Structure to design on (749 residues):
């Protein structure tokens, strides 16, 4: 165990104490701490302040008449209106389905892709470059392309019909629009997961893999018994990031289905947008958005606590 | 088409009108020549403002709009040309903002006490821009406008008894048809709701992969706009939430969806996409607007025609649209802004809208040969007289109600709801809307 380093006020190089052995110590805003100021100002200005205004709006009654005037306090009234909306419960369910599809598809797809692209060959290097290109494409471009591909007369259905298979109404039929958009969103998130996994694979000690091979382990066993356990911390972080990414997804839904048909593909973020910017009920939209934020924060906190508890055990 | 063309007269309609438009196509060359002749001598429409800007005035005029096709952009260029003939030192900067975003950007700019000098916009949320303080009253200028009497009350938008916007032209939907297909299968354009489904069935039964109907089914204001003739045809309205009437309207459309008479992909179509589908040449009927006339002449490679929308048992209403001209609340040069708008409302400026397929609103253009000489406009003109209704509906509650109607219309087009369910959900959704 590493001996904790105890610092004095005069030390020019303050170091964090070991949390497990000593307990948390605060750090002083000198030296390295000062470098946090710009980031702190950025977060304060572009994250905390907008969040504060969002929460303040959700507790006020804000319509175009008072948008640029003092907002009247409304207590929990806007939250009641948001929850009482006929579309709210459906939007919550849609959001959970959407998140599950994106997270599962993204994590699994990213893992498989990273395995395939692990070994550096000219082909894998080129493919990895394509993967990064897809990741870098704006969501607007991705969503627009897929909207055309999934159209009833688009490429995918045209191929199905060519092979005498029935065309599928991807963006129309039943619950399919929600799943279709989620899969497209997952497709766009796979590159990020691939990059993260691939980098993590590099840290797996080569001796472990060699020893497993010597012991006669087949590839499936190596993946399940050695690689996956090594990836657990990475998967924790990646899953939290992907959950947040999926939960706040708006652009794919906006481009591909506008939340429809009807409200089939309306998630909480899209519902918040619709209430605020189509219905001009800004505070109701804010309340919906705050509820969505609370849900994802709650999920993240619970999950992280469970994982840390498992790790300690 | 009848050889006896009725006067195209919007004066008979007295309700407030507004509508966003998507226009396509090129300007008619002959119309340009006529316009040039008229515009050579500026008319008295340019005179008399609260205070008249000097013709030597210089600077920049910012105009925001959502016109995204050739005919619309050409219309702006024509208006700008008329303005610059009188104010050659004013640079007009036209900024395109996507329709769905324009009102939000105007409202957002209001927060910074900024925004356009002139706004050309006809969305359903005009009243929200007014409430946010984004618009400036035209009343003082209109009171001194020599041509004010040429505009019927129905094209003037007032808030709190003050004139804020005036619509130089009217747009609405009618029933387009592919004459080649109809001749091929032996069908005539339906005149009533009772004729519609049998006509579709006959087209579908021809076995030639014709799509009977192209129609918009998006779950937003475009879906609401499209559904309105069918719902009101049975007596439904926001003032009369008749569930039975709504059920009949939705059931009619649900039958088309279940029988494959329309493309379920229409749930993602706006009116532009619907027209694009019609251009393909395998669609028998389309519900769409006069703003496509210019594009149709250029893009449709088959024989086509336009008739009035089929009438329901209660006839049914058709929303009347068009883009009013507005003045931004924070313009630093209202006199210059009005000088531009006065050209929009002038006789040559209003006539220019005809070239984009719209129906000029001025009384003195009702009998103009360039207006009455377009046979494709006849059905629209008739509908204005007999079935036109206010758009957008007044009040924040009705904007929310429109979304409820649109969502259920979209669900019906997609085949996800039947008529009774859609009607029940519509009534429940509208009743659940809290007062604004």
């Amino acid at each position: 165990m590493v001996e904790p380093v105890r610092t004095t006020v005069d030390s020019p190089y303050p170091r964090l104490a070991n949390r497990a052995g000593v307990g948390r110590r605060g750090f002083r805003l000198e030296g390295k701490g000062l470098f946090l100021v710009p980031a702190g100002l950025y977060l304060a200005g572009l994250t905390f302040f907008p969040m504060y205004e969002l929460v303040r709006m959700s507790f006020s009654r804000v319509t175009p008449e008072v948008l640029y005037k003092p907002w009247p306090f409304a207590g929990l009234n806007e939250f009641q209106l948001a929850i009482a909306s006929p579309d709210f419960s459906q939007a919550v369910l849609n959001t959970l389905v959407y998140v599950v599809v994106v997270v599962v598809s993204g994590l699994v797809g990213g893992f498989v892709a990273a395995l395939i692209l692990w070994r550096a060959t000219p082909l894998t290097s080129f493919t990895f470059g394509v993967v990064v290109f897809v990741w870098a494409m704006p969501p607007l471009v991705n969503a627009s392309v897929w909207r055309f591909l999934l159209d009833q007369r688009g490429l995918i259905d045209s191929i199905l019909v060519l092979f005498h298979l029935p065309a599928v109404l991807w963006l129309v039929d039943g619950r399919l629009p929600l799943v279709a958009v989620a899969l497209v969103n997952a497709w766009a998130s796979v590159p990020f997961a691939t990059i993260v996994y691939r980098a993590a694979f590099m840290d797996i000690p080569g001796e472990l893999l060699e020893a497993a091979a010597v012991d006669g382990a087949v590839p499936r066993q190596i993946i399940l018994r050695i690689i996956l356990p090594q990836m657990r911390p990475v998967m924790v972080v990646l899953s939290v990031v992907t959950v947040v990414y999926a939960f706040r997804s708006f652009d794919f839904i906006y481009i591909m289905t506008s939340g429809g048909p009807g409200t089939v593909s309306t998630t909480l973020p899209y519902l918040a947008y619709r209430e605020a910017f189509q219905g001009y009920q800004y505070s109701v939209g804010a309340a919906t958005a705050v509820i969505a934020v609370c849900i994802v924060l709650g999920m993240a906190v619970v999950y992280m606590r469970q994982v840390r508890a498992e790790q300690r055990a | 088409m009848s050889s006896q063309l009725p006067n195209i007269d919007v004066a008979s309609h007295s309700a407030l009108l507004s509508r966003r438009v998507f226009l396509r196509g090129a300007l008619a060359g002959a119309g340009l020549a006529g316009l040039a002749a008229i515009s050579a001598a500026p008319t008295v429409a340019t005179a008399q403002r609260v205070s008249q800007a000097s013709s030597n005035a210089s600077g920049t005029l910012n105009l925001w709009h959502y016109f995204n096709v050739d005919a619309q952009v050409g219309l702006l260029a024509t208006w700008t040309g008329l303005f610059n003939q009188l104010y050659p030192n004013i640079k007009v900067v036209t900024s395109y903002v996507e329709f769905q975003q324009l009102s939000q950007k105007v409202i957002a700019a209001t927060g910074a006490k900024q925004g356009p000098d002139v706004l050309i916009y006809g969305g359903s949320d005009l009243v929200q821009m007014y409430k946010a303080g984004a618009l400036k009253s035209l009343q003082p200028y209109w009171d001194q406008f020599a041509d004010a009497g040429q505009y019927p009350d129905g094209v003037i938008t007032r808030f709190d008894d003050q004139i804020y916007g005036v619509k130089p032209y009217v747009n609405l939907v009618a029933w387009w048809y592919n004459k080649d297909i109809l001749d091929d299968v032996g069908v005539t354009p339906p005149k009533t709701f009772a004729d519609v489904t049998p006509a579709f069935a006959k087209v579908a039964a021809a076995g030639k992969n014709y799509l009977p109907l192209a129609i918009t089914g998006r779950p937003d204001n475009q879906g609401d706009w499209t559904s309105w003739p069918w719902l009101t045809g049975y007596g439904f309205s926001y003032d009369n939430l008749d569930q039975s009437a709504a059920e009949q309207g939705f059931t009619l459309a649900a039958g088309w969806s279940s029988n494959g008479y329309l493309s379920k992909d229409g749930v993602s179509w706006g009116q532009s996409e619907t027209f694009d589908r019609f251009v393909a040449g395998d669609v028998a009927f389309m519900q769409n607007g006069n703003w496509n006339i210019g594009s149709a002449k250029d893009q449709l490679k088959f024989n086509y025609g336009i008739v009035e929308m089929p009438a329901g048992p209660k006839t049914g209403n058709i929303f009347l649209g068009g883009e009013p001209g507005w003045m931004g609340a924070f313009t630093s040069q209202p006199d210059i802004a009005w000088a531009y708008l006065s050209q929009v409302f002038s006789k040559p400026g209003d006539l220019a809208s005809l070239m984009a397929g719209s129906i000029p609103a001025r009384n003195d253009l009702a009998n103009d040969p360039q207006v009455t000489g377009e046979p494709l406009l006849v059905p629209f003109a008739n509908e204005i007289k007999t079935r036109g209704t206010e758009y957008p509906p007044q009040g924040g509650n009705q904007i929310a109600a429109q979304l409820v109607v649109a969502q259920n219309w979209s669900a019906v087009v997609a085949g996800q709801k039947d008529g009774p369910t859609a009607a029940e959900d519509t009534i429940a959704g509208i009743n659940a809307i809290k007062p604004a």
Confidence is low (pLDDT under 50) at residues 1-25 of chain A. The first helix of chain A runs from residue 36 to 58.
